[in-house]
Amino acid sequence: MNQSAVQIPSRSGIYATRKIPVSRARPFKPMGRKKILLVLTGFLLLLCFGVFLQQTFDRGAGFINRPISKVRIENQWQHIREEEVSWLLAEFMGAGFFNFDMAGVKQILEQHPWVHHATIKKLWPESISLHITEQVAIAQWGHSQLLSQNGETFKPIGIESLNSLPLLNGPEESQLRVMEQYQAISQLLLPSTLRLTGLTLTLRGSWELVLNEELIVAAGRTDVFEKLQRFVEFYAGQPATRTVGYRSIDLRYDNGIAIKSVSDKITGVAVR
């Protein structure tokens, strides 16, 4: 350590000299080759260890989150083809197990006209199970739609192949009412040889029936079941040679019915 002299004035005005120590910085010594190699080696080891951890994590994540590639069908379908389902699922297949869009699959499947409800479950490691409840068509609604057992209308392709179903019709939003009326009248006709093959609710609220695919019956707006019951009893008492010629029946009378035959002859019959 060096010392430097500094003059300091005293009270008498005479300067006194005092030596003050001055520190000197240590000279910089460059890092040796061995230390540099050790630092670089440690850095490279840390880098390699990080890459190893990342690769291990990626392999583990890939093993757990495998892409969905298989579909297990849990039930049989009558109107839905497996090819259609495969086409609908194509855009979702290949997604990872944890990334698979269950809600999207359910939504697109239930847009199919014959699908009433779809249930999808993931099966690790790479599959889904699929259970589809189909619509049950109980009647035609108009000439372009079908009516389900829940009173819902749907429009599948190839509806013409189901024209043997009863034909129902009515104003907008009347599907459930017409369906319930159809079921009730069908029960009433069970003991007879008459079958309800068509039912229409008019805009005026009147009921028109088609029995055995050709006999048209006007039942009016009120007391429909009482009128039909009287007609069923009357019809059962007529010989088949006579009833085969009936083409239309008008029940809108309090104590009788009007019958129109194939010869366009109208006959009035009193019924109590």
Q: Any idea what the CATH architecture of the largest domain is?
A: 3-Layer(aba) Sandwich
Structural class: alpha/beta
The tally of domains stands at: 2
Relative helix content: 25-40%
Q: Which CATH class of the largest domain applies here?
A: Alpha Beta
Query: According to CATH, what is the topology of the largest domain?
Result: Rossmann fold
Please report the number of helical segments: 6
Description:
- With 272 residues, this protein is an alpha/beta fold.
- The chain has 2 domains: 70-134, Ubiquitin-like (UB roll) (Roll); 137-270, Rossmann fold (3-Layer(aba) Sandwich).
- 29% of the residues lie in helices and 31% in strands.
- A 10-stranded mixed sheet has the order 8-7-6-9-10-11-12-13-14-15, with helices on one face.
- Strand 1 (2-9) and strand 2 form a beta hairpin.
- The chain is rod-shaped, with a radius of gyration of 46 Å.
- The N and C termini lie far apart (140 Å).
